[in-house]
Design brief:
Helices cover 68% and strands 0% of the residues. It has 161 residues and is an all-alpha fold. It holds the Pfam family RGS.
Amino acid sequence: MCKGLSYLPSSCLEKAKGMRVKLSHLAETHHKHKVQDGKTPQDLESLLNNKTGLEVFRGFLQSEFSEENLEFWLACEDYRVSPSNLQRTKADGIYSQFINPDAPQEVNLDAETREGLLSVMDSPCVDTFNKAQQRIYNLMAKDSFPRFLRSSHCMEAIWDF
């Protein structure tokens, strides 16, 4: 049985209030500035850098069976900060999980980007996935993120806090 908000520590309540304000601001900004010069608002970055916001966004994508773009973006972020002795292993994992045409979570990349990745997989470096990651980020910013802001996931997250 739910005991209500009074049983939560005050630090949790303060964090929840802050998240509510941020998500409300994202939704408000999106609705005021849906498309500006053909671009969507760049608040996706703020969402991806917020642990709670990221989890709400992930839940939304999972409900649409389209979380592969977010998972790829996160894998690339992890790859970028990995020690050089682990880059080869992580690069192979990213390629087999997201890039390979038979990948279980294949992301939608154009042929040029996909072929470019294949050509450098023998000697991956820290920026191997930068172009592909940016393309997927842009896809999320133009497609998934605006849908998320209009979704019940976003609205529930705003009002649950």
